[in-house]
Amino acid sequence: MKRQASAVWQGSLKEGKGRVSTESGVLAQAQYSFSTRFESGIGTNPEELIAAAHAGCFSMALSVQLGNAGLLADKIDTTAVVTFEKKDAGWTITESHLKVNATVPGATPEVFAGLAQEAKAGCPVSRLLNATITMDAILVT
Q1: Contacts of 76 (CB under 8 A, 6+ apart)
Q2: pLDDT tens-digit profile of 45-65?
Q3: Which fold has domain 46-140?
Q4: Most distant CA pair in the chain: distance in Å?
């Protein structure tokens, strides 16, 4: 299975503009620029898209782990916070922190914590990132 997205950039780094699109069409010519990446401009940026991918991937991976344990979540609410820092080698994604709140009838906090750790380690996006991945996983009762 292969998935694809494309980006087109025109101009210099600071004054230029880019557009990003996905094969599915969910993103179609979405704007990104220096200001959306390093300031607070309107549009998206690669780090935001990675955070969205990590949150979505983790939520699905946790659903699998719960299912394998005979549990079904009413809701898994995940936010990924990606840290983008200037290092000696250049700008680097150094961390992705997952904030997870899940309502899982029948789960104990201990079982939930273990399954969340397995999902964090097994999520394909977690395995892709060469960064520290931390997590706060809360079972909502």
Answers
A1: 59, 62, 63, 100, 101, 102
A2: 999 999 999 999 999 999 999
A3: GMP Synthetase; Chain A, domain 3 (3.30.300)
A4: 55
